[in-house]
Description:
Chain B: One of its GO terms (molecular function) is NADH dehydrogenase (ubiquinone) activity. By secondary structure, chain A is of the alpha+beta class. Chain A contains 19 helices and 12 strands.
Amino acid sequence: MSTIYNEADPYAGSRETTEGRVYTVTGGDWDLTFADPHGEERLVVNMGPQHPSTHGVLRLILDLEGETVTKARVTIGYLHTGIEKNTEYRNWTQGTTFVTRMDYLAPLYNEAAYCMAVEKLLGIEIPQRAATIRVLVMEINRIASHLVGLATGGMELGALTAMTNGFREREMCLDLLEEITGLRMNHAYIRPGGLAQDLPEGAVEHIREFLAVMPKRVADYHRMLTGQPIWQRRLKDVGYLDVTGCLALGVTGPVLRSAGLPWDLRKTEPYLGYETYDFEVPTADTADAWGRYLVRMAEINESLKLIAQALDRLEPGPVMVEDRKIAWPAQLSLGADGMGNSLDHVRHIMGQSMEALIHHFKLVTEGFRVPAGQVYVPIESPRGELGYHVVSDGSTRPWRVHVRDPSFVNLQATAAMSEGGMIADVIAAIASIDPVMGGVDR
Amino acid sequence: MSNDGGEVVPGREEAGYDASTARSGGFRKGAFGVSGSGDTSGFGGLVRVEPGGAVALHSTDRPYGGYFDEVTDALIEAVGEATFAAAVYRVLVDRGEITYFVAREHLLTLVQALRDDDALRFELCSSVSGVDYLDSGGPVATPDRPRLHVVYHLTSMTYRRRIRLEVAVTAEDAHVPSVTGIYPTADWHERETWDMFGIVFDGHPALTRILMPDDWDGHPQRKDYPLGGVPVEYHGATIPPPDTRRAYR
């Protein structure tokens, strides 16, 4: 940055040395920095980035008058890992393992949106079974994500039982995802062209057991929280943002639906066959944290409906495109030692077919080429519109992957939601946005 | 990266390359991205003509199909034919998505009409981001073919439509008017695009870095941003930066 900026910055003066620029934090200049012409009591409180109530590595700078917040500023970037840039130096299939680490509470949505973008660039259509399983795992993921939103939000408000119960049920979701994908989080299960592997034996039964248990647990949440006066008073009329505010600030997802607009991309711009499923888009008309809580709880029920329908329509078939120039050559299978490559496949490439070995090698080391062009693929993640803008220059690697992360956009509403309210309500407001900093900072 | 610029590459004519009709005129040499060393891979003589580079240079002819014609007609009606002709210098329909390439002087007029006109109603600005097309398979970026693109994705919730606007600027004059006055949500998007690509959004209320530290030098997602290698504690070996490693292109 230019030195002009630093000269104007009262916090850090700097001077040039042979070792580079040295910054001096002088301090003691609060009178100069915060000269208050009105003679009012103003207190600037820095909250975070390491703070148990800021929903992640988020820094808030709050101007307070008494307990009232007059100004809320948000600083992000503490979790920036350059994932977008990293994908430009990996092949198209490897991209999945990177993007899944962005919004780590909704990893399967990142994978699905990325893969759908790659598939749109390739102009290919995935098999029906792969599409159904994608819907299945994404809806399990949505439940897990909403439960974490509830659990951490509850914890930040002091409702520790909401936290322990939320994580308990989320664990059931993660167990299912672990059984299906092999990993609890960051699955890299959805791949360009389909899925890494089919559902393992017994997964369908376990999902059905989950479906049998879960409605009772959701009812328990309502018994524990919904009627509870403390919970209500902490959430009602807190973090108010109406539809106009949402659209101006680009806010989507449960926050927008809590303001009364039934905008859900699964209904409005269906993908993966969502138009053939029977489900509702829950809304509320309160436009506050309470409405968002109710919308998320209702969405858990809708996701359970979707999972049941997806299970019913599972037909045997391939889970990867037929084109061997795109489909990953290694067929995974569960060996006696746990996970591993299919012994049949290894035997085939090592002992029978030189061409298969070459093909395997080429596809794994070089990858496939994607025709040049750009696409934007939006899907409805648990937090709103997750959009992937992917550009290809026709090579084996993405030219550019930009992620429109819903947390990043929705977090801009912090000031609008919390200015004029109490400092304790800032926590409830941010928890009701449910941002995931891994997605915000990428 | 893959293009050798003005060098005459044998095999262009043989492969049917025609600069007037090829979408971008991209071509590739070799299987690995190395140059300046001996041809150890044996693929050095390989020349491939790409059907299209990242920057498609043609314009789609009317009718565009779908709702694209309706949107374009409504836009022409809203801003006037003369303004539209001056503002939009190319329209591209590809893979079911429409892209308007916009001259930056007219960006705000266009965006205002897109948001407010009853027949358009693009209420939501989904995303603003940058793309650096430096040496992207296609022709080398030149002043008349600027490398830095700002890409706007607009959504009409009323009509359930999506369009894309693209503004191209050079790295030397990387200025684009800010749309925050029309779409407040563009605030953080534009800050990120400034942070990552060094594109200045004139009129933005506080264009500061957002993901990188305030005192960071350079703009990391530019294609010519130097990438660091990793020193290894073994006989002074290093792992080279990813863009200089041997890799398939």
